[in-house]
Amino acid sequence: MSKLTNCKDCRHQVSKNADACPNCGAKVKRTSVLTWIAVIFIGFMVLSAVMAGMSNNPDPSAASNTPTEVQSDEVAEVQTIPNWKYDEFIDEMRGTTTYTATTISKNDVYLDSPYGGGTNLGLIIRHSNEHGNEVLVVTNNGQLWCEYSDCAMTVKFDDEEVEQYLISRAAGGSSEAMFLDGSEDAFINKLKESKITMLEIGFFNNGNQQFTIDTADLDWQH
Questions:
Q1: CA torsion sign, 164 to 173 to 129 to 99?
Q2: Which fold has domain 85-214?
Q3: From CA 169, how far away is CA 181, in angstroms rounded?
Q4: d(CA 210, CA 103)
Q5: End-to-end CA distance of the chain
Q6: What CA–CA distance (Å, rounded) separates 97 from 67?
Q7: Is the pLDDT of residue 82 over 80?
Q8: Model confidence at 33, in pLDDT bands (50, 70, 90)?
Q9: Per-residue pLDDT for 209 more than 60?
């Protein structure tokens, strides 16, 4: 029994082998062998293209390693950042230049209320024609404090013995900065020879706090 199909014009059933619909006389359209061959050929072409694209994709395991390699490069780049930041400030009026080298503690301390967040300590070396070499410590939070007339900062260079250095308040009365009061050049020479320097200094209502500073590779020619 021949297979039936619907006439495209009158929708009556008609044999697929018939040349025309017996109801309306419309010709029955057949799919030729050549048409089927063309469809199959195109299908093979599409399949071949897909397979070629898959073979050209990079190895998934290699792709998964890419972020790790980038991350390793980024870590290496971070590790090469210098410990010290150097700046020059030119006074156009007086024709003088002030030089500074700055570094910041590796650790933060946490002070009692009302001081929220971490508190770090910055170490600054400064040179000007007027004052020569100066050394000061500054904090980003809290108030540096000394209850005695002779204020001192406790310092340890690498594995050497603990030392005491006199410090004094800034001339403007700021409680966020203290200046080394003498022995500046000796202190700077110690910094040049050290890799890790620990500083202990007093904070108002928070006692003495300790900070660790990576002071290696100081390049100071003043």
A1: positive
A2: Immunoglobulin-like (2.60.40)
A3: 9
A4: 16
A5: 109
A6: 45
A7: yes
A8: very low
A9: yes
